[in-house]
Design brief:
300 residues; mainly alpha; 13 helices; 4 strands; globular; membrane; lipid metabolism
Length: 300
């Protein structure tokens, strides 16, 4: 018997928290321009924001996405736990929720059942506007929870991952407070702590949110489609660097378990290079690299 798509609803306190973690960082992003104009933006803020963005984005792309969701490679336990920790600090949701949602997305890509397809409401201009909003952000505000027993039974059976799921709240505090502590200690000032909290904490999280959500929305609406997929996934090159290679989305949907998404000349894929480094250091193994024969079979 097939299990249902959903397994209940998000408790009200947790749902309120979702709204807070969407709205508060977004307000910080809106305030970023006048704050930069009025207070200035120090090089320390820039370095901390870029550093924290890079590490936490890779936690989501290499960890949550390519490893935990799709099994693009195998990892020894220390790397497995580290990827879960850093992925959680991207503040995109507890690991069991994230993996279940994304596996469900691939199971029903751009069809009924997909949690965040922009094509669920039709193809008229009004329907596409509604679909873009739904795919980009609206779906996150839905209280229905994807059934983890159906879509993530392997992680549910893993004690480390059950603990990681429960650690999402404390790790969210860490990802906000740690940049402020670093900024304060390096500048030896409360002002340095405050600006680091703003830029490397709130603004960094918001930018990462919207880059990730753009892969759900933009990369299913516009872009290049060199490979055959069952859905409308597309490559959108302007997001390639900020998304660490995730916006080479068409290849990913054509062959989801591949460790590298950007496979053509000039397609920068930072996440794939990081996985390559893990393999070289012996931390990761059985990496599923794309082969020429496989790419030929899925090419249009």
């Amino acid at each position: 018997m097939t299990r249902p798509l959903h397994s209940g609803r998000r408790p009200l306190p947790a749902h309120v928290t979702v709204y807070l973690f969407v709205l508060v960082p977004f307000l910080a992003l809106v305030a970023a321009v006048p704050v930069a104009w009025g207070w200035g933006l120090t090089w320390l803020d820039v370095f901390l924001a870029v550093g924290w963005y890079t590490v936490t984005c890779l936690g989501a792309t290499v960890g949550y996405h390519r490893y935990f969701t799709h099994g693009s490679f195998k990892a020894h336990r220390p790397l497995r736990i580290a990827l879960g920790v850093v992925g959680s600090m991207a503040v995109q949701g507890p690991i069991l929720h994230w993996v279940a949602d994304h596996r469900r997305h691939h199971a029903f890509a751009d069809k009924e059942g997909d949690p965040h397809s922009p094509w669920l409401f039709g193809t008229s201009p009004a329907a596409l506007v509604r679909g873009f909003w739904h795919a980009h952000l609206g779906w996150i505000l839905d209280r229905n929870l994807t059934n983890q027993e159906r879509f993530a039974p392997d992680l549910l059976a893993d004690r480390d991952m059950r603990i990681m799921h429960r650690m999402f709240g404390p790790l969210t505090i860490v990802t906000l407070v740690a940049p402020a502590v670093m900024g304060g200690l390096i500048s030896w000032s409360w002002a340095g702590a405050l600006t680091a909290f703003f830029w490397a904490g709130l603004v960094r999280i918001t930018l990462l949110h919207h880059v990730t959500w753009s892969v759900n929305s933009v990369c299913h609406m516009i872009g290049d489609r060199p490979f055959t997929a069952r859905d409308k996934s597309a490559n959108f090159w302007p997001l390639a660097l900020l998304s660490m290679g995730e916006s080479w989305h068409n290849l990913h949907h054509a062959d989801p378990t591949q460790a590298r998404h950007g496979v053509r000349r000039g397609e920068l894929d930072v996440s794939a290079r990081v996985i390559w480094l893990f393999e070289r250091f012996g931390w990761a193994y059985d990496v599923r690299w794309p082969t020429a024969d496989r790419l030929v079979r899925i090419a249009r």
